[in-house]
Known about the structure:
This protein is an alpha/beta fold. Helix content is 28%, strand content 14%. A ten-stranded mixed sheet has the order 7-6-5-4-3-2-1-8-9-10, with helices on one face. A hairpin with a 4-residue loop joins strand 8 and strand 9.
Amino acid sequence: MKYDNYKFRLKTCVWEITLACCFSCKYCGSRAGKARENELTTEECLSIVRQLADMGCRRVSLIGGEVFMRSDWAIIVKALTDLGVNVSIITNGFLFSDKLILELKRVKIESVAISLDGTEDIHDLFRQKGSFRRAIQAIDILNQGGIPVSIISTLHKHNIDCLEELYKILKEKNIVAWQLQACSPMGNALKADFSAVIDFRNVISFVEKHSQESHFAIGIADNIGYYTETEGYLRGDISGKGFFLGCRAGLSAIGIDSVGNVRGCESMYDDSFVEGNLRETSLHDIWYHPNAFAYNRQFTVNQLSGRCKGCSYGRICAGGCRSYNYFTHGKLYESLCCIHGMQKAKPV
């Protein structure tokens, strides 16, 4: 096979470098806390770094667990940035210090995203007591260090009503972006006393209300949508051209977990989506395998089901977020929560 003109080009990667975490959040999709047995060694990680760069991947987001629970995180980041790969880190913000900021600057981190899921009482209830204040302090420390910082909020039944309060708090902080994403019913979020159900219409109404007035970008993740009249502005793109173009898993993006399993997206947290393991097969061979990521690479509109079947946006949207569809009702090509054509709810 000739790869120069191959249709699918790897551009981005989300890499879970450890499952170790200082939290055990009540809705953590990966059930993080303890490191997996036999997580990738430093040398194995550096091999993956070289493979990502060789494949043309130019943007990597490091996640956990908690990234900073892995002692060699800076070695991994520097190896990536030395090869011209842009690196961001998603963190709970609990372990920040002036020394950590110096390390982030030394390894040329592009940006840091902090998870903040509500006002202090709500955030601490589902994460850890004191975690809200530590996250806010982390924002300030990053600002002082000149490192761009954004916020990611995972929405569920118990925090959906505090978006306005959280917005007032974030307006006072120097952040570049705020992403709202739906909590997926997987991992710890499957517990009987927790509900991930939200009304996407209220989320979209909230973003419509504030996106043009705020000094930072407010956007919704790929598992919320799709195709209302304001779609072009809802994903944090002030140009009005930020349209959802379908799930990118295996088309231009991959996920890697801490033992080397490769998925099209690291949110597709199920063994059925593992395309191979980097201890056994090279990233090149996984990516270019003729049957790799078939759920997206071999997609046809005939696979759409439910309300998505026959939708005028079906060829573009392809049924929405594969991961969210899978974990909410098991059908990859049907989004139960798409609000296209639905009457908008009143703004929150």
